[in-house]
Specification:
Layout (H helix, E strand, L loop, with lengths): L1 E4 L4 E6 L4 H11 L4 E5 L24 E2 L5 E2 L2 E6 L2 E6 L8 E6 L2 E7 L7 E2 L3 E2 L13 E5 L3
Parallel strand pairs: 2-3
Antiparallel strand pairs: 1-2, 4-5, 6-7, 7-12, 8-9, 9-12, 10-11
């Protein structure tokens, strides 16, 4: 699992074990200042084997989901005020989405058009409303529950 560490301007990668070759590869690619590794034992087992087409709690990145198009899940995100979310690609919901779905879970969240996605199907990445810096191809899914 990965998550942003805004305070230290880096990404935290959580793994169940960290062999030297993994640590060496991460350090070589990203450096030691932009990434941190957290080791948290084996992942909990779902009642059925989770896979790309049938992810189940606890969710892991890369599973299929449907805002407007078929896309893959991204980073978990703490939206604030007790709201859980996920960052994913903006091109997955270029006009937002009132109903984000997984193959086994319907209507789990929303993406607010023009505020929480920044993709235009003609021009690509756009500014988020009220900003003057490009932020990449992003969308924020606000989950209805954690």
């Amino acid at each position: 699992m990965t998550e942003p560490d805004q305070k230290n301007n880096r990404i935290i990668v959580t793994v169940s074990e960290a062999p030297d070759d993994l640590l060496d590869a991460l350090a070589a690619r990203f450096g030691t200042e932009r990434i941190a590794v957290r080791i948290e034992g084996p992942a909990p087992q779902a009642s059925t084997a989770a896979n790309r087409d049938s992810d189940s709690p606890p969710f892991w990145g890369g599973a299929k989901f449907y805002p407007d198009l078929t896309c893959t899940t991204g980073f978990p995100w703490n939206v604030g005020s007790g709201v859980s979310g996920m960052l994913t690609a903006g091109h997955c919901a270029p006009t937002g989405s009132t109903s984000v779905n997984y193959p086994a879970y319907n209507n789990v969240g929303t993406i607010r058009s023009d505020y929480e996605e920044n993709w235009d199907t003609t021009y690509g990445t756009q500014y988020f409303r009220g900003q003057s810096v490009y932020r990449g191809d992003l969308a924020l899914v606000r989950y209805r529950s954690s």
